[in-house]
Design goal:
With 136 residues, the protein is α/β, with parallel strands linked by helices. The chain has a domain at 61-132: 2-Layer Sandwich (Nucleotidyltransferase, domain 5). The chain is built from 3 helices and 5 strands. A 5-stranded mixed β-sheet has the order 3-2-1-4-5.
Length: 136
């Protein structure tokens, strides 16, 4: 019995580049498919801007300042009132044209339920311009 032993031959290790080429070809195909989509334009007919001297200024309307303190008490433009009175005032103001802006100044310690009730009253009144301001 004889055993063949190879002496002096080194094992050759090579980098297999076939998976790299496969990935690069897939990326190339993806970019070739998506590139035409990026250059597709949508036609829009936008209105031409009106010169500022031809636009009438909006009428000045005093905003409604509604304050909610930490105990949940409401005051509208500095006048303390109940939630029902504030809701009826918002109904009247919401029917005006143009509508005033409602600026809510809620204390950080105010109950969320009170703030949500005021927002619901403003929504029911149809007021669309609502802002939150900070007392600082």
């Amino acid at each position: 019995m004889s055993v063949a032993v190879s002496i002096g031959r080194k094992a050759r290790s090579e980098i297999n580049v076939v998976p790299l080429i496969d990935v690069l070809l897939v990326l190339l195909i993806i970019f070739m498919v998506t590139a035409p989509m990026l250059s597709h334009r949508i036609g829009l007919d936008l209105p031409q801007p009106v010169p500022p001297d031809r636009v009438p200024p909006p009428p000045e309307v005093d905003p409604i300042s509604l304050r909610i303190d930490a105990r949940g008490h409401l005051s509208v433009n500095g006048t303390p009132m109940s939630a029902q009175a504030a809701a009826s005032l918002l109904q009247v103001e919401g029917s005006l044209n143009p509508q005033p802006e409602l600026r809510i100044n809620a204390s950080g310690e105010a109950d969320y339920h009170v703030v949500a009730q005021v927002l619901a009253s403003a929504r029911d009144a149809g007021i669309v311009r609502i802002g939150f301001i900070d007392s600082d």
